[in-house]
Design brief:
- The chain is an alpha/beta fold and about 240 residues long.
- The protein has 2 domains: about 120 residues, 3-Layer(aba) Sandwich (Rossmann fold), CATH 3.40.50; about 100 residues, Winged helix-like DNA-binding domain superfamily/Winged helix DNA-binding domain (Arc Repressor Mutant, subunit A).
- Helices cover about 45% and strands about 20% of the residues.
- The protein contains 8 helices and 12 strands.
- The strands form 3 sheets. The protein has a 5-stranded parallel sheet, sandwiched between helices.
- α2 runs parallel beside α3 and α6 packs across α8.
- The longest helix has 20 residues.
- About 0% of the residues have low confidence.
- Bound molecules: calcium ion (CA).
């Protein structure tokens, strides 16, 4: 019997694969590795890992193809491991259902934090405990769903309907990066265009002005440059 959480590392670069494998093994994870996309797809089918770390630049097929194949039948959390030269593919992967990304080079604490967030979120989906909760808390920010009220450090914050909707969306995916396209589609139900990105930016500026102590250096909703935003999962 092995109850360890299994992580599949899909990475063709030997050094990075070893680095990740060493960190994860020493932190109690069971690790399996694939050096290419085809091997990854077959291992995912046979081992059903709990989390997948997926390099986008693979030698045989593209990482996004692996993701597409996985998402046809499974919601296993996928964290994209991307080089800076793969910005476009990274956003594409997030829009295709990747849960998160990590950019090379990264450190061990960042890698472990990403994995914990991905696991926590997949657990939430399984137990559906977000649906039954009346309150969301991160740091000093509290969203009271029943009364549609938001408080920061005990002080009530007045948000417009749209601003509230955006904040709740972030809360639902706390710790995870949400792309511009995803947010716009969830909030306005329209495909992302120049106008809608501008609309989102204006709303974000207003939300930050209302909830952040220092909107220029936000603590609750962080900017992921060129990708979107992420709500920080802070200690309460
Ligand atoms: Ca690679």
């Amino acid at each position: 019997m092995n109850n360890k959480t299994t992580v599949l590392i899909v990475e063709d670069e030997h050094a990075i694969r070893n680095f990740m494998s060493t960190i994860l093994t020493s932190n109690g994870y069971r690790v399996i590795v694939a050096t290419g996309g085809a091997e990854a797809i077959s291992l995912i089918g046979s081992h059903c890992p709990d989390v997948i770390l997926l390099d986008l630049g693979l030698p045989d097929i593209e990482g996004t193809e692996v993701l597409k194949s996985v998402r046809e039948w499974s919601s296993i959390p996928v964290i994209v491991v991307s080089a800076r030269t793969f910005e476009r593919e990274k956003v594409e992967a997030l829009d295709m259902g990747a849960d998160d990304y990590i950019t090379k080079p990264f450190g061990s604490s960042e890698l472990l934090a990403r994995i914990r967030t991905a696991l926590r979120h997949s657990h939430k989906i399984l137990t559906k405990d977000m649906g039954g909760k009346n309150e969301f808390v991160t740091g000093d920010l509290v969203i009271d769903f029943a009364n549609r009220r938001v408080k920061v450090a005990e002080k009530e914050v007045h948000l417009t309907q749209i601003e509230y909707k955006i904040l709740v969306l972030f809360a639902r995916y706390v710790g995870r990066v949400l792309t511009y396209d995803f947010i716009i589609n969830e909030i306005w139900g329209i495909p992302s265009e120049k106008n809608s990105q501008q609309l989102l930016r204006v709303n974000m500026a207003n939300i930050r002005r209302k909830i952040e102590e220092n909107p220029g250096n936000p603590k609750y909703i962080l900017t992921e440059v060129g990708v979107g935003y992420r709500m920080a999962d802070l200690e309460n």
